[in-house]
Amino acid sequence: MPIAQHPAGPVHYGRAGDGPGLVLVHGTGGDAATNWAHLVPGLSDVRTVITPDYAGSGATADLGGELTLDLLAGQVAAAFEGPSDLVGFSLGAVVAAAVAAERPELVRRLVLIAGWTHLADDRLELGLRTWARLARTDPESFAAYGPLVGFSPEFVREAGVAALMGEPPRGTLRQIELDLRVDVRDLLPKITAPTLVIGNTRDYLVPVEHARAMHAAIPGSEYAELDSGHVVLHERPAEITALIRAFVTRELPGASGES
Known about the structure:
Elements: E1 3-4, E2 11-17, E3 21-25, H1 32-36, E4 48-52, H2 69-79, E5 84-89, H3 91-102, E6 107-113, H4 122-137, H5 139-150, H6 153-159, H7 161-164, H8 172-179, E7 195-200, H9 208-217, E8 222-226, H10 232-235, H11 237-249
Parallel strand pairs: 3-4, 3-5, 5-6, 6-7, 7-8
Antiparallel strand pairs: 1-2, 2-4
InterPro entries: AB_hydrolase_1, AB_hydrolase_fold, AB_hydrolase_sf
Keywords: Oxidoreductase, Peroxidase
Protein name: Non-heme bromoperoxidase BpoC
């Protein structure tokens, strides 16, 4: 596994395929493998796919100290091997938005999936605080809570509870606590990369209104919705791959010959 250097310690990432770079950023309670491994083959024939683990997930250590959005954005930026397309899911969407706003020279195109701008309403806050409390106090209930809020009822029935109740990364609690603090409202208007925002109409963790708010705040962004729960990467893998692939390979105005 390749390693990128960052002041907070080494950042481990996966690398597959050939062509222009495509960086995929995982969400809270996941890592590069659990969020993206099954989608990489559908993208690596047209892109060099980079899948970093940020602090507390996968092989990247969480060395303590304050976990901040700037830290995670810096770790993701360190994994870039040159200007690349960038895709983020959930907390990864917030991190990707920060990278695009603060490091525009790195980001060719941007896709934000199931993200949010800030702790905008009581429903989002209640969901995240409950998730954090269960992580601190009740591992069994914490494991059950994920499928309840992460997927649509039909997907849970079809997949089975046992298949959806894995062990979370060691950094999950600190990542949830960061979820409660992030606020990218000042950053979103700074994004200049062509952007696609994707919301999920059956998202019980981060209701779809938050993705719509991200879209509204990013100048010139495009928007799509899928009939899915929060973890659309697993619930609608073919559809999300198709949206990402179509957007990052589409020729943009003034980009003749780019693919």
